[in-house]
Specification:
Number of strands: 0
Radius of gyration: 20 Å
Distance between the termini: 37 Å
Oligomer: single chain
Largest sheet: none
Order of helices and strands: HHHHHHHHHHHHHH
Strand content: under 5%
Helix content: over 70%
Number of helices: 14
Length: 328
């Protein structure tokens, strides 16, 4: 059964991607539109499928995979099912970096990808501060350092909003923070991919450590695993994944919390086996949520991050309610 988990989620992701390419106000044959776009033919299908729907679909998949894998890694590292990728401080740092574009006009030559560039820089600075503050501490203290940096950058972002130079700039930033993959092109995806690949590899290489830690720190050390160094690499990988996704798509919450919980029973509660299925399931979930956003009637512009929060918040409340006796 466990061997069928990854093929099942791959098939689900392919089906979701095809559905996303077919969803829109104008019905277009997907396969012929893709073929026209790949062969550089000028047709309505090539423009609609290849230049509008394909970048949006690929971005939703990349962002969902990043959030799903980072959530699974942090929950396995901390052995805490309530651990959230936002605890690294990278997401707030990315949001603060993007605010600089909307308010101060940074990187004017970068055009539409300027918020993503500034977001990556903001996430990188927040990450450097977090690692510098944590030093060589235990994993729990690394997350505490991430929480401190997240609070600091969140306060700075609130100050920027408070002193907005005009209502238009504030509106742009607030809409961006609500999270969306619409109106992004393939250039945003190329900007996102290097950080996603590096972050994913860092986490994947530490999957034996995640399994060892699930048996206890002493067991992990007896297996010859470098617990402290490996934990820092996991946090670094998660911060890269979250910071890169926030810098491109804004804040899309609860995916990193929700997806590992849904997948964990299917892999026998093994944190090392949870990484890839969580990435695939997270990609499918964000892609499906984006399809739902597009199916709303015209004039009802619900942001993707708002929809995922509406789905995830009740689930989070249920988790707290279910586990409350453990904390008493």
């Amino acid at each position: 059964m466990a061997k069928l988990i990854n093929p099942f989620f791959i098939a689900l992701l392919l089906l979701t991607a095809m559905l996303s390419l077919a969803t829109g106000s104008t019905p277009v044959p997907v396969l012929s539109g893709l073929f026209d776009w790949i062969t550089a033919q000028e047709s309505a299908g090539a423009i609609i499928v290849g230049e509008i729907r394909l970048p949006r679909t690929l971005l939703a998949i990349a962002v969902g995979a990043a959030l799903g894998m980072s959530g699974a890694a942090l929950q396995g590292l901390l052995r805490n099912p309530l651990a959230d990728p936002g605890l690294t401080g990278a997401s707030q740092g990315a949001a603060l970096g993007a605010a600089g574009v909307f308010y101060f006009g940074l990187f004017p030559g970068a055009g539409a990808v300027a918020p993503a560039i500034a977001g990556l820089i903001g996430a990188g600075l927040a990450l450097a501060l977090m690692l510098g503050l944590a030093g060589s501490s235990r994993p729990s203290m690394v997350i505490m350092a991430g929480l401190a940096i997240s609070t600091l950058t969140g306060a700075a972002l609130a100050a920027v909003l408070n002193f907005a130079p005009n209502p238009y700039a504030m509106q742009e930033l607030v809409f961006w923070l609500l999270g969306s993959v619409s109106e992004r092109g393939l250039d945003s995806l190329w900007l996102l991919l290097p950080a996603l690949l590096v972050g994913g590899v860092l986490i994947w290489r530490q999957r034996r450590l995640l399994y060892g830690l699930s048996l206890g720190e002493q067991v992990a050390e007896s297996m010859g695993l470098a617990s402290s160094r490996g934990s820092r690499l996991v946090v670094l990988g998660a911060a890269l994944l979250v910071g890169a996704s926030v810098s491109v798509a804004g804040s899309i919450g609860f995916v990193g919390l929700l997806v590992p919980h849904l997948v964990r029973p299917l892999v026998g509660h093994r944190p090392d086996r949870l990484l890839l299925p969580s990435a695939l399931a997270g990609a499918s979930l964000v892609c499906l949520a984006d399809i739902c956003v597009r199916l709303l009637p015209p004039g009802r512009d619900l942001k993707l991050g708002v929809l995922t929060s509406l789905i995830g918040a009740p689930f989070f409340i249920w988790l707290v309610w279910k586990d409350r006796k453990r904390w008493l």
